[in-house]
Design goal:
It contains five helices and 17 strands. It has helices at 14-30, 65-77, 156-164, 184-205, 263-270; strands spanning 2-7, 35-37, 80-90, 93-101, 107-112, 118-119, 122-123, 138-140, 143-147, 169-173, 177-179, 209-212, 215-218, 228-231, 235-237, 243-246, 253-258. Helix 3 (156-164) packs parallel to helix 4 (184-205).
């Protein structure tokens, strides 16, 4: 399968961002992409740097204007498209939601972000209700996609549940970057940890992993921090954690990567981790902590 990663710097102009994304999807389709993955909350700036009730105006229903816009693009290019939207479910009830669009422009399924961070410059708990759709893969014409969102990528449980439910790919739209006060050495440790933990999901489950991050600097409107420098580095790892592609930190990219889905079958035969799981002893994993 040919998979396209689109790593971009966003602006405050939603329409301009969408038109830019449309152009890049066109480039990816011309290169033969069958599946295109966008970054987290790609329609706008990463607005969670501050807590501002006016920013809920960015949210929209699903289906809604964005699913219509991106659905037409998916149908035009006959691709499966993974988007990341700010969902307005009801007044006062919002989600960070990935929506997968089929080749005909219809909604194949959606996933609501389960793990919601609350850290300086990442005040997501103010905006997003934790997801309630479970870790359910989404069936598409290119395969069964295990889609999660950003902070979910640090948790092996979600990746495992997607794998146990038959996901053929693990996909993570992402918005993560450097805290400017950290030393360059600490910044690099964080970026490498982010890459390593997801490569671990690939190895542990015998599945390819696709992570698509933002790039560029976005200022903090409150002035309390120096903003976020998103570290890019979008990548595709194979089912043994092998790096098939890794983007630069600070460049916009449209990259098409070949993934051999049949390879997962052989890797799982060599390393039958699912066979040897001692599931009868895993019940304590459902506890917050074991004192």
């Amino acid at each position: 399968m040919k998979v396209a990663l689109i790593q971009l710097a966003c602006t405050a102009d939603v329409e301009a961002n969408q038109q830019k994304i449309a152009l890049h999807i066109d480039q990816a389709a011309q290169q033969g992409a069958e599946l295109v993955v966008l970054q987290e909350l790609h329609n706008s700036l990463y607005f969670c740097q501050t807590e501002d009730t006016h920013l809920f105006d960015l949210a929209e229903p699903i289906p809604g204007p964005s699913t219509e816009f991106y659905g037409k693009i998916a149908a035009q290019h006959q691709i499966v498209l993974v988007t990341s939207l700010f969902e307005r479910r009801a007044a006062g009830l919002y989600h960070n939601t990935a929506v997968v669009l089929e080749r005909d422009g219809s909604i194949a399924g959606k996933y609501r972000k389960m793990h919601i961070p609350d850290d300086p410059a990442y005040y997501e708990k103010f905006y997003f209700t934790p997801g309630d759709l479970d870790f359910q893969p989404i069936d598409t014409s290119v395969g069964r996609l295990g889609v999660q969102v950003c902070w979910d990528q640090w948790y092996p449980e979600g990746a495992r549940l997607m794998a146990l439910r038959g996901a053929e790919l693990l996909i993570y739209p992402t918005a993560i970057g450097y805290e400017s006060s950290d030393t360059p050495e600490e910044q690099e440790r964080q970026r490498e940890a982010w890459t390593t933990v997801q490569r671990g999901h690939a190895v542990a489950n015998g599945l390819p992993v696709i992570a698509v991050n933002r790039t560029g600097h976005e200022p903090d409107p409150s002035g309390q921090t120096r903003g976020i420098q998103f570290w890019g580095s979008s990548f595709v790892a194979g089912p043994q954690g092998e790096m098939l592609y890794r983007a630069p930190k600070d460049e916009e990219i449209v990259q098409v990567v070949d993934i051999d889905l049949k390879r997962s079958e052989n890797v799982r035969r060599w390393w039958p981790f699912l066979r040897d799981r001692r599931i009868e002893h895993f019940a304590p994993l459902s506890q917050r902590f074991i004192d």
